[in-house]
Amino acid sequence: MVTRPSTPGAGGDPYLAGCATRRILDRIGDRWTVLIVGILGDGDARFSELRRRIDGISQKMLTQTLRGLERDGLVRRTVYPEVPVRVEYALTEAGWTLLEPLRALQIWSIEHLSDIAASQDAYDNAT
């Protein structure tokens, strides 16, 4: 008999179709989330800085991802009443706890890039 690992906390079970933990996994497993959280781990950043540092992200996708992260309590948006208005994004306490596991995924992807590329080539050539 195969058993699932127990999930700490409020009884969430991501292996159940209706569990809210799946939405959380969707959020933190998103490539834009990984990159945004990584940058904010270096300190607060403005929208334009995030967009400049994340090659290939559209304004729409950056906006949507930041709103989702803010809604989930991982990112804080601060508006400074200046002329022109200045908006900065920062990790919340919960966002900081996510930084280490996401950086581990980044490091893993870099370390295994060539192995995965070789496996993909071998698979593609065999099919």
Polypeptide structure, described:
The chain contains six helices and three strands; from the N terminus they run ααβααββαα. It is mostly helical and 127 residues long. It has a three-stranded antiparallel beta sheet with strand order 1-3-2. A hairpin with a 5-residue loop joins strand 2 and strand 3. The mean pLDDT is 91. Pfam families: HxlR (PF01638). It comes from Micromonospora wenchangensis. One of its GO terms (molecular function) is DNA binding.
Short description:
The protein contains six helices and three strands, in the order H-H-E-H-H-E-E-H-H.
Characteristic terms for this protein:
Arc Repressor Mutant, subunit A, 127 residues, three-stranded antiparallel beta sheet, mainly alpha, 3 strands
Number of strands: 3
Overall outline: globular
Question: What proportion strand?
Answer: 5-15%
Strands side by side in the biggest sheet: 1-3-2
Number of helices: 6
Can you tell me the CATH topology?
A: Arc Repressor Mutant, subunit A
The CATH class turns out to be Mainly Alpha
Count of the separate structural domains: 1
Write the SSE topology:
Elements: H1 21-28, H2 31-40, E1 45-46, H3 47-53, H4 59-71, E2 75-80, E3 86-91, H5 93-111, H6 113-126
Antiparallel strand pairs: 1-3, 2-3
